[in-house]
């Protein structure tokens, strides 16, 4: 059974579509990421699931039940807010126990649940503190404990790690994923950070301009992006535009404007104008004329424009026929390319992915 | 010059003007009044003044003073109650339901009365509340058979005039604390299953209590000593602690008694503040 179902949901603010015919299904126990730039519609979608935003069209279901007529406080959701939204006048224990307290549960039961949750987020002993007396990371864990307190059907996280500094964020990514697995709760979270989306999500929906660009496992989206936006928002990509000039031996030949040609295993009709994406780390850089690695039938030539040294890798910006191409080279050998040197870039045809522009 | 001497000079130089100002405008007049309140007569024009506790004992032994002190406390509580009853919801709507330019315009309208003289405002009420005044005519225009009524020179007239005068303070202090409550806090409460009533009682009210308390203090304290509104709007009902004190200074010329009554009023204010102190401390330390 799907935990959260979104079908044909649309929301307009004036004439601007914040959500434009969005459909997706979140499975039971899944950690589902909504990734996109600001204004992409991901936060609107999260708030529509929570009930803070009423869609103009379409249907949202939670645990199989349509929720359009169910008010927020009856939807049985747990939500963690970007600024945590901890109640400043209540103690940590009162914050975590709030949801049970408004459900009029016995005091002893609330105290026991608070104790369990504090143990889960590793903050036992902090019951009597006020939120302001705690660090950002601790506040974040309290907010998570509070969102889990009522055993909701779905956990909604709005930019869960956005307010933390880099080091703490990496720690919390791991911890958040661990807790989500242990509790086994269906989780939908919003982020604009691709690394966060990749590390946390079982599946990702990439959203842009109120529409879903692609839904899939992080690896699938990364390796087989369907649109140019998906390719460039999750990771980086080089794009080649050209015309299909034939197919044979299981590969499609694409003629580039400068006369060079590249090959892909994807299929396209002859004469079609296509956009092809190639990840920078799939390219192998080498001196012109050297034997290419077996299977790397794509070869283009370009002139080195710039080099950025990042320790474990080097990024080269290469001008390949008036077209900038980015190449990541692992820092494995002493081989380096100087400025203005003409080099050959080779890669396998199945790393050339045809995407919708 | 040593650094501690420099520090001392800086402290004196920076806080001196304030201290001097407070001494001249607050401490010295209060001290003079305190001395007067223990004297038989004001020692001016060569009159002989002697020490006495009579003015203070009079307050507790003569029913006139005790009765009117109680009337003033009651007036203060009632005016504060009505200001809160009207002002808090108004501030809530202003802070949470109205956005942008409309909010600015309404805030301007709320502070607009401060631009006019309070004496003029109070006199305007006589025209509204009198026998054939605006209020009576409006009501009779809608309900021609309504009984005739005359609110002017009654206790309710005093309450109406004072509520109108102090309502802006209540609205503004409540507005400031209400608009500081982030929407995400109420959203979090809803997401945890709270009803509208729960959200109000457990989140909004406790977080806005400092504003409500500040507004209540700003209303109660001046109303306790109010004398202008009771005098103009109250008629036979005008006698309050404030008007009694004013009389001692302007009509009876009994400054020592007026001073003693003034200090008793100050004591009443401090006593009431003391009673509320535990509540105040708990809720103001949060923010």
UniProtKB/TrEMBL annotation, chain A:
This entry carries the following GO cellular component terms, namely:
ATP-binding cassette (ABC) transporter complex
For biological process, the GO terms are:
putrescine transport
Q: Which UniProt keywords apply?
A: ATP-binding, Cell membrane, Membrane, Nucleotide-binding, Translocase, Transport
Root EC class: translocase
**Domain ABC transporter, residue spans:** 4-234
Output the superkingdom of the source species. Bacteria
What reaction does this enzyme carry out catalytically? Answer: ATP + H2O + polyamine-[polyamine-binding protein]Side 1 = ADP + phosphate + polyamineSide 2 + [polyamine-binding protein]Side 1
**Entry's EC annotation:** 7.6.2.11
Q: Which Gene3D superfamilies match?
A: 2.40.50.100, P-loop containing nucleotide triphosphate hydrolases
- GO function terms (MF aspect): ABC-type polyamine transporter activity; ATP binding; ATP hydrolysis activity
Q: Does the keyword Transport apply?
A: yes
Q: Which SMART domains match?
A: AAA
The protein's job, in short, is: Part of the ABC transporter complex PotABCD involved in spermidine/putrescine import. Responsible for energy coupling to the transport system.
This protein's assembly is summarised as: The complex is composed of two ATP-binding proteins (PotA), two transmembrane proteins (PotB and PotC) and a solute-binding protein (PotD).
What protein family is recorded?
Answer: Belongs to the ABC transporter superfamily. Spermidine/putrescine importer (TC 3.A.1.11.1) family.
Which protein is depicted? Answer: Spermidine/putrescine import ATP-binding protein PotA
Which species is the source of this protein?
A: Kumtagia ephedrae
Gene name tied to this protein? potA
From TrEMBL, chain B:
* Gene Ontology CC: one annotated term: plasma membrane
Q: What is this protein called?
A: Peptide ABC transporter permease
Task: Return the PROSITE patterns for the record.
Answer: ABC_TM1 (PS50928)
Instruction: Share an example GO biological-process annotation for this protein.
Output: transmembrane transport
Keyword Coiled coil in record: no
| Compartments, as annotated in UniProt | Cell membrane
Residues crossing the lipid bilayer are: 20-42, 75-94, 106-128, 153-178, 199-221, 257-280
Q: What Pfam families does this protein map onto?
A: BPD_transp_1
Query: SUPFAM superfamilies in the record, alphabetically?
Result: MetI-like (SSF161098)
Q: Taking the first listed entry, what is the main subcellular location of this protein, grouped into a coarse class?
A: membrane
Sorted UniProt keywords:
Cell membrane, Membrane, Transmembrane, Transmembrane helix, Transport
ABC transmembrane type-1 domain sequence ranges: 69-276
**How is this protein situated with respect to the membrane?**
Multi-pass membrane protein
Q: Which family does it belong to?
A: Belongs to the binding-protein-dependent transport system permease family. CysTW subfamily.
């Amino acid at each position: 059974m799907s935990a959260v179902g979104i079908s044909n949901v649309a929301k307009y603010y004036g004439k601007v579509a914040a959500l434009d015919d969005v459909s997706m299904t979140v499975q039971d126990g899944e950690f589902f990421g909504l990734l996109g730039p600001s204004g992409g519609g991901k936060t609107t979608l999260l708030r529509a699931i929570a009930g803070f935003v009423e869609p103009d069209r379409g249907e949202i279901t939670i645990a199989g039940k349509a929720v359009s007529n169910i008010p927020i406080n009856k939807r049985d959701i747990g939500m963690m807010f970007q600024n945590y939204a901890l109640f400043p006048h209540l103690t940590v224990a009162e914050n975590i126990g709030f949801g049970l307290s408004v459900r009029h549960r016995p005091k002893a039961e609330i105290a026991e649940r608070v104790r369990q949750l504090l143990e889960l987020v590793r903050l036992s002993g902090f019951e009597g503190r006020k939120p302001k007396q705690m660090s950002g990371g601790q506040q974040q864990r309290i907010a998570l404990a509070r969102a889990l307190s009522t055993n909701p059907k779905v956990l909604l996280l709005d930019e869960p790690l956005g307010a933390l500094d880099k080091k703490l964020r990496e720690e919390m990514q791991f911890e958040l994923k661990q807790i989500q697995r242990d509790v086994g709760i269906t989780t939908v979270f919003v982020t604009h950070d691709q690394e966060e989306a990749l590390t946390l999500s079982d599946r990702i929906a990439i959203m842009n301009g109120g529409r879903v660009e692609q839904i899939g496992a992080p690896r699938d989206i990364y390796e087989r992006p369907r649109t140019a936006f998906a390719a460039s928002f999750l990771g980086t990509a080089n794009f080649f535009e050209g015309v299909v000039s034939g197919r044979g031996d299981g590969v499609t030949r694409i003629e580039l404007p400068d006369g060079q040609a590249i090959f892909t295993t994807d299929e396209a009709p002859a004469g079609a104008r296509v956009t092809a994406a190639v990840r920078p780390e799939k390219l192998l850089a080498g001196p012109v004329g050297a034997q290419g690695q077996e299977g790397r039938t794509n070869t283009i030539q370009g002139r080195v424009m710039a080099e950025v040294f990042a320790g474990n890798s080097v990024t080269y910006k290469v001008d390949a026929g008036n077209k900038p191409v980015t190449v990541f080279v692992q820092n494995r050998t002493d081989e380096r390319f100087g400025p203005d040197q003409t080099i050959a870039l080779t890669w396998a045809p199945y790393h050339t992915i045809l995407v919708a522009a | 010059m040593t650094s501690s001497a420099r520090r001392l000079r800086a402290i004196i130089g920076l806080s001196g003007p304030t201290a001097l100002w407070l001494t001249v405008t607050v401490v010295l007049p209060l001290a003079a009044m305190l001395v007067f309140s223990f004297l038989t007569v004001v020692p001016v024009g060569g009159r002989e003044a002697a020490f006495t506790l009579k003015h203070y004992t009079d307050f507790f032994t003569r029913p006139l003073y005790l009765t009117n002190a109680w009337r003033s406390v009651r007036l203060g509580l009632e005016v504060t109650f009505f200001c809160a009853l009207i002002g808090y919801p108004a501030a809530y709507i202003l802070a949470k339901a109205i956005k942008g330019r409309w909010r600015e315009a309404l805030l301007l309208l709320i502070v607009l009365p401060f631009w006019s003289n309070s004496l003029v405002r109070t006199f305007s009420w006589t025209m509204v509340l009198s026998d054939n005044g605006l209020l009576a005519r409006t009501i009779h225009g809608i309900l021609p058979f309504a009984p005739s009524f005359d609110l002017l020179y009654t206790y309710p007239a005093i309450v109406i005039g004072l509520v109108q005068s102090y309502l802006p303070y209540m609205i503004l202090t409540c507005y400031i604390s209400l608009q500081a409550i982030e929407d995400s806090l109420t959203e979090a409460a809803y997401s945890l299953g709270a009803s509208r009533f729960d959200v109000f009682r457990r989140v909004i009210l406790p977080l806005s209590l400092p504003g409500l308390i500040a507004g209540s203090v700003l209303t109660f304290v001046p109303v306790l000593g109010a004398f202008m509104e009771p005098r103009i709007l109250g008629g036979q009902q005008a006698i309050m602690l404030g008007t009694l004190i004013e009389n001692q200074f302007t009509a009876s010329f009994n400054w020592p008694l007026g001073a003693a009554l003034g200090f008793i009023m100050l004591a009443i204010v401090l006593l009431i503040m003391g009673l509320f102190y535990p509540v105040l401390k708990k809720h103001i330390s949060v923010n």
